[in-house]
């Protein structure tokens, strides 16, 4: 089955949250046919749990990562993934160095979202199989010189900071992951308050009847009258 790999440094803060958010979004959209999502770290704290603040910030966004176990990134993980999404440019560059064959499918989260949003939109009912084509199109755009915003490619590492920093990162990741899913598979129709997709009525141009002016015969006075 198609898989997506999310990468950060220790695999205990950013990538577990992003993994959980992305998995939930894809499961909600495709159910059992959703691509698999996993995560690892370029300097992964092998066997460690996610930071307590990470677990809490994720739970506040309805993502359960209490059972997360950190992994150190390997070449096999990168090779098996159809897409590698990194939290920062340094992670993308590490992968490009030790696995150059995977460079074409490795992007920072923000970089990939910006590229996808610059491409023609896909149908809102895109299937899981759309992933390969969208990754290829994104790489084409990157090779053609798409720069995006090179000064804003990273999701900051909250390790060692207060819980509010973890919450801020979770909020940021939630926004970018939602945009990523929309960029790959197309935006879903907006739902009405009762959960029913909003149907936008077709606008039919109003037909205005043509008004024909009434012709009044001109009365010419007879000679000698008046």
Based on the model shown, name its key terms.
226 residues, alpha/beta, Rossmann fold, 7 helices, globular
Give an account of the 3D structure.
This protein is of the alpha/beta class. The chain has a single domain (about 5-185), classed as Response regulator (Rossmann fold). About 40% of the residues lie in helices and about 10% in strands. The protein contains 7 helices and 4 strands. Strands 2-1-3-4 form a 4-stranded parallel beta sheet, sandwiched between helices. β1, α1 (about 15-30) and β2 (about 35-40) form a beta-alpha-beta unit. About 35% of the residues are buried.
CATH architecture, by name, is 3-Layer(aba) Sandwich
Outline: globular
Order of helices and strands: EHEHHEHEHHH
Mean pLDDT: 87
Q: What portion of residues belong to β-strands?
A: 5-15%
**In which order are the strands of the major sheet placed?**
2-1-3-4
Provide the domain count: 1
CATH topology: the name is Rossmann fold
Low confidence ranges: 196-212, 222-226
Radius of gyration: 27 Å
Number of strands: 4
Main beta-sheet annotation: 4 strands, parallel
The CATH superfamily is identified as Response regulator
**Termini distance?**
100 Å
Class derived from helix and strand content: alpha/beta
Q: CATH class, please?
A: Alpha Beta
Please, how many helices?
A: 7
């Amino acid at each position: 089955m198609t898989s997506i790999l999310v990468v950060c440094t220790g695999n205990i803060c950013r990538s577990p949250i992003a993994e959980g958010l992305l998995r939930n979004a894809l499961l909600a959209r495709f159910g059992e046919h959703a691509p698999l999502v996993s995560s690892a770290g370029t300097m992964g704290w092998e066997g460690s749990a996610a930071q307590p603040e990470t677990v809490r910030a994720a739970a506040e966004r309805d993502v359960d990562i209490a059972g997360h176990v950190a992994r150190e990134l390997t070449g096999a993980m990168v090779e098996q993934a159809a897409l590698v999404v990194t939290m920062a440019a340094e992670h993308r560059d590490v992968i490009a160095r030790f696995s150059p064959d995977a460079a074409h499918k490795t992007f920072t989260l923000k970089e990939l979202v910006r590229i996808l949003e610059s491409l023609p939109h896909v149908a809102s009912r895109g299937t899981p199989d759309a992933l390969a084509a969208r990754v290829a199109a994104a790489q084409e755009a990157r090779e053609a010189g798409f720069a995006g915003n090179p000064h804003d490619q990273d999701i900051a590492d909250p390790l060692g900071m207060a819980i509010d920093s973890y919450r801020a990162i979770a909020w940021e990741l939630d926004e970018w992951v939602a945009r990523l899913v929309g960029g790959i598979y197309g935006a879903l129709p907006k739902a009405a308050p009762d959960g029913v997709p909003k149907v936008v009525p077709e606008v039919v141009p109003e037909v205005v009847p043509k008004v024909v002016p009434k012709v009044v015969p001109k009365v010419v006075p007879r000679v000698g009258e008046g």
